[in-house]
Write a structure and sequence with these properties.
The protein is an alpha+beta fold. The chain is 47% helix and 15% strand. The chain is built from 25 helices and 20 strands.
């Protein structure tokens, strides 16, 4: 018989099996606490774990003789587990008013931790475990297969290697004999690694390029050999193929190639329209066909999101498609004679590979020395107009290559970076931050390397890093005095309160520590490796960022479906219980990250 008022369908108790639930029911008791009652004292162990039925319990710390409230716990929420697990409570827990709470004896709770691994993970792994539970609850089995299947578990083709001097005729015979679509070509002396040659490459060489059956395959091989690791999820192979404009990749175990996998094998596990968009972009004959293909990306996002795709994978896929889109538009909009004298950069979230839905056009152009910027004015105006047709609105701040301010020679950009550094005003630091995230997508990509080198040197300027870091604190974390998510009446702006502090703080720290990565998740990983971010915080920050991105995207897609404008505000009341708990936990991570940044950049007293 179920315990009246106790919800076994709510996390984390929904992770228990039937026998464990019966054990909980037998041990549960219901207790009343008068206002002001201290249920657990800070630094002390607890003899039980509490689940609030009615009322609220506040958690606080005593600092300099004053109590600082950390959070509060309402109906359905669990507290006291940490005090049981570690033997000491992190905070003092006190009844704010009259409180009714279920109490579970500590020995029973410890037994559950020992015997129920998923239940234990909820408490030991924090955000990560909660996000995994949500994914399991939300994602259909087909999507789960895509997200959980490893490359090694898919149908791999044999990796057949041949020497570079193998005649084309023998290579064709080898394809037929082994039943494969490609061959791994071993490097010739002086070459840095193997290449790949496909059946199509050999056919073109014989039929179109005048090669004979005795010609060696070495010159036909494509290098570098693009691949994935056998432990990567299958979705990563799909992203890699989309981004690299290819339909087959090598599969590596360490440095060894153990097989190949193609688009057909991946799609046999999952039906995705991403490859159709990619093919349409590759085969587009004019700008209109590029625009038509690009309009399908929002539908792809909606499908993948509904099927439970991890936000990091979803961002990678959209980024890969957007890179192909922008490169195709650049090719059609810029006359051939001008393409090699310029490099198209994407900035902001697109530069970080973190854009999912279409937002402002944030791009710039680097021109080779001696090239006249005005020569690209007409082409970039056309480029901006085409992006607007697809659904990318012009940037309100004019951060577009159609604006002469964002279309400069390499020397011009290097001078501008020096000027931003010298000025140090908010506008200069904002523009500098956008360029720090710059990523090349078309044209001569070598032009951006000197720019990246100049940017990395800025990290040694401690004063500049402090000025940049201060922007992290310009928006308050939307948590109330009692630790609940604050809603200003028209929703919680999660970009200002959650996403921006993490993204900008990671960007500043990456610059300071020479971590040459542009993606926030990769920056976090690099900072942990450099010893600049504690391991626990380094695990929680990307989890928090993914929570913000997922919750925002869900409500943005709902808004678009209803014909409303998608923005950065969350309707917290509309979220599920677990989502609200995840959001609150993630916002607490933002506060801990800000505290770390204050100490790392010596900002105490300045924020």
């Amino acid at each position: 018989m179920a315990t009246p008022g106790f919800d076994f369908h709510a996390p984390p108790f929904d992770l228990l099996d039937a026998a464990a639930r019966a054990r909980v029911e037998a041990a549960l008791d219901l207790a009343f606490f008068a206002p002001g009652t201290v249920l657990i004292e800070a630094g002390q162990p607890s003899t039980q774990v509490y689940v609030v039925l009615r009322g609220e319990v506040e958690a606080g710390d005593i600092e300099d003789g004053r109590e600082r409230l950390f959070s509060d716990y309402g109906p359905g929420e669990v507290f006291g587990a940490f005090a049981v697990i570690t033997g000491r409570a992190r905070h003092r827990y006190r009844a704010r008013g009259e409180v009714l709470a279920f109490v579970l004896p500590a020995p029973v709770f410890r037994t559950l931790l020992d015997e129920q691994p998923r239940f234990a993970a909820w408490f030991h792994e924090g955000l990560s475990a909660k996000r995994q539970l949500l994914a399991e609850k939300s994602a259909p089995s087909e999507a789960n297969r895509l997200m959980l299947t490893r490359v090694r578990d898919a149908q791999l083709a044999e990796a057949v290697a041949v020497a570079a001097d193998t005649p084309i005729g023998d290579a064709v015979a080898g394809l037929r004999r082994h039943g494969v679509e490609c061959l791994i070509v071993e490097p010739s002396p002086g070459e840095e690694g193997p290449g790949i040659v496909t059946r199509t490459d050999l056919l073109d060489a014989l039929a179109l390029e005048g090669h004979g059956l005795a010609s060696p395959v070495g010159p036909l091989a494509h290098r570098p050999l693009i691949g994935v690791r056998e432990d990567d999820v299958l979705f990563q192979a799909l992203v890699t193929m989309t981004e690299s404009h290819i339909e087959r990749v090598a599969v590596r175990r360490g440095n060894a190639v153990v097989g190949t996998i193609g688009l057909a094998e991946v799609l046999s596990h999952y039906a995705s329209q991403s490859h159709l968009i990619s093919l349409r972009l590759a085969r587009a004959a004019d700008e209109a066909e590029v625009v038509a293909a690009a309009r399908e990306t929002d539908a792809l996002v909606r499908t993948l999101f509904a099927q439970g795709a991890k936000i990091s994978y979803l961002m990678e896929m959209v980024s890969a498609l957007n890179s192909r889109l922008l490169a195709a538009l650049f090719r059609f909009c810029v006359p051939e004679a001008l393409r090699e004298g310029a490099c198209l950069l994407v900035l902001g979230s697109e530069g970080r590979r973190e854009q999912i839905l279409k937002t402002d056009q944030d791009n710039a152009l680097i021109l080779a020395p001696g090239v006249e910027p005005d020569a690209y004015a007409e082409a970039m105006a056309r480029f901006a107009a085409r992006l607007a047709e697809i659904g990318y609105p012009p940037c309100a701040g004019g951060v577009m290559a159609s604006n002469p301010h964002w279309r400069q020679t390499l020397d011009g950009w290097r001078g501008r970076i020096a000027d931003w550094r010298r000025r140090g005003d908010p506008v200069s630091l904002m523009e500098l931050s956008m360029v720090v995230d710059a990523r090349p997508v078309a044209g001569d990509r070598h032009l951006v390397q000197p720019l990246h080198e100049d940017l990395i040197t800025l990290g040694r300027d401690e004063g500049l890093m402090r000025e940049m870091g201060l922007a992290t604190f310009q928006f308050d974390t939307p948590l109330t005095l009692f630790g609940r998510v604050r809603d200003g009446g028209d929703g919680t702006d999660i970009k200002k309160g959650g996403i921006f502090p993490l993204v900008h703080g990671l960007r500043t720290m990456a610059l300071r520590h020479g971590v040459a990565r542009s993606n926030s998740f990769a920056r976090c990983e690099g900072l942990v490796a450099a010893g600049a971010l504690p391991g626990e915080l380094g695990r929680n920050v990307p989890q928090a960022l993914a929570v913000f991105q997922r919750l925002r995207l869900g409500q943005q897609l709902d808004a678009l479906a209803a014909g409303r404008v998608a923005d950065n505000r969350l309707d917290v009341a509309a979220l599920r219980h677990l989502d609200r708990e995840l959001l609150r936990d993630a916002l607490r991570v933002v506060n801990r990250f800000k505290d770390h940044l204050r100490d790392a950049l010596q900002l105490r007293g300045m924020t």
